[in-house]
């Protein structure tokens, strides 16, 4: 029996409220904390499609003689217990690795990271690593907190939006339509920095089609214009920053026009954008994957942060640095400690007091050395890392250099995949655990503007599938001897006690609304706008940083093009859910390669022709979409499909600080695919 209860969309970090509507037989919006009028984008509206889908995993599977066969839960867990114990005993706990899930609840992520730590390793990560890890690192360094500085509801007060490396019209549609568009209609100016024209560009006043990987010269040149034109907020700089003189010296040595040209943009347009940003009373920055997913992702965001600090655009309504987060709980997965270097609440594993504080609640102390990050771990599969638990992630499609990733998964001694569909990663599993989707479980998720929202169960999981938290409870008991609370509410109550930024919240208090972090013990509500009087670091000031351009990892030969990868509105990440949705059908153009007419003509490529895209790492065949929307020298494809598997082409380079991959810059050769002879 289905009951209609308030839940949260399983897709993006906007966190729209959805529930099952039995009359319509589909998901509908309720008036949630973010989608206050019940509005949804096409993905949210189609979210029921994956609940009663006939490809759902409905029974545990174990590999016997190379084939996955149906098993009982006991058989599956006996095998898991035996193999995890064996690997940990033979090679030490750091030979195990845990992929936690940004698509799953705070309670589930909390329990999985606690299990890893009880087993004796900090080897737990979630795909924030592939996403905004660099943003979080840079913002943490400067402001003392890596999260969005403002709240969605105050951002409309901005006079200028600087949107860089993000396409909110397609990737955060309800934020775009319900929070940004009304402001744009009443006069807010939007600057869009993106090598490609997309739906966001259509609503922009100034478009800077930056050359992929050249955001630092662009941002430094914008900062230099702000200084040159006397647009610096002197009072703010004096009171709230340090290091201005050093930055000013560096910027005054720059040739602004030359830096603009190096970044591939028109110097006049760049000056216009910088003046608009600098002259605004209130200017808000939105930043996305175009900035974060480079091997200089942290430096990109460091360069970006100089702008709000120069102009006093931090700590008040309509300003700040606002990363738009990825999945419905990528914010929360990090908040509750599913990261290898920090405990719940972002306290470093190396901090003795932090470990002692969690030990008071847990009854054991977590290890004191940071664990491996997600991609680093994959690179060590079969060697240092022998067993993995993959919860709600599809890394064989989504990690870079997919051919290598597949070999890595092959080389594991033991792999558990806990998912809801037979994904491409399930093909590498020794044991498969059938979990639950959004409508089948309860718990909390934390959206992009730090609001903790409750999901309530509408329907039971299909067949023998179980609620994710119940599966993780048994896993915790079997491999680490933990006795976790039986309900999401019980787990939330525990996680609150070790997560200072959540300490004042309560499950009941959230109800069908939300509570926002930071919400310390004793507070009556959370803080919407961070860094108002002092930064979250506890300091009154934030430092300026001098940032130099870093060349992309892949050198680009004369006959090569730069492949940028990204997203479209109707598909979500690895496509595990959306590719199975009847409503979000595969549409023309979604899996094609956007190529500029000049680059196409030089290669004899017609619109619609099948082209081969290749480099030393791999190759894919795709249809060409010849369009001037993408800049010359750059091609664009999505990574939503297992075929074409675009991540065969992306590389291994990682940001040295945040370890995020360079998904937004790969050198490729593009040629017309030779016709396959009809009689072959
Ligand atoms: N429809 C849909 N929505 C989603 C998702 C989805 O898969 N589909 N995924 C969710 C997730 S996990 C995330 S992380 C967010 C991501 O949301 P976005 O950050 O908006 O995602 P992307 O499309 O990957 O990248 C944004 C833009 O960066 C541009 N870009 C590429 N290279 C550069 C560069 O060097 N510099 C600059 N300035 N820009 C560049 C691309 O052209 C692209 O338009 O979306 C979330 N929402
Ligand atoms: N080339 C390229 N690659 C990229 C990116 C890019 O821009 N370009 N972006 C990167 C980014 S930002 C991200 S975040 C990653 C995303 O990478 P992934 O997290 O690997 O991708 P998803 O498709 O979100 O994977 C979600 C998995 O969880 C399962 N799932 C969904 N809901 C539930 C649930 O409630 N319970 C359980 N048990 N399972 C569930 C789905 O079936 C699916 O297998 O991809 C990265 N890869
Ligand atoms: S905007 Fe995001 S959270 Fe809202 S319905 Fe669309 S995918 Fe779901
Ligand atoms: Mo993401």
Automatic annotation (TrEMBL):
One of its GO terms (cellular component) is membrane. Residues 2-55 form the 4Fe-4S Mo/W bis-MGD-type domain. GO terms for molecular function: 4 iron, 4 sulfur cluster binding; formate dehydrogenase (NAD+) activity; metal ion binding; molybdopterin cofactor binding; NADH dehydrogenase activity. Its EC number is 1.17.1.9. It comes from the Archaea. It is an enzyme of class 1 (oxidoreductase). CDD domains: MopB_CT_Fdh-Nap-like, MopB_Formate-Dh-H. This is Formate dehydrogenase alpha subunit. The gene is fdhA.
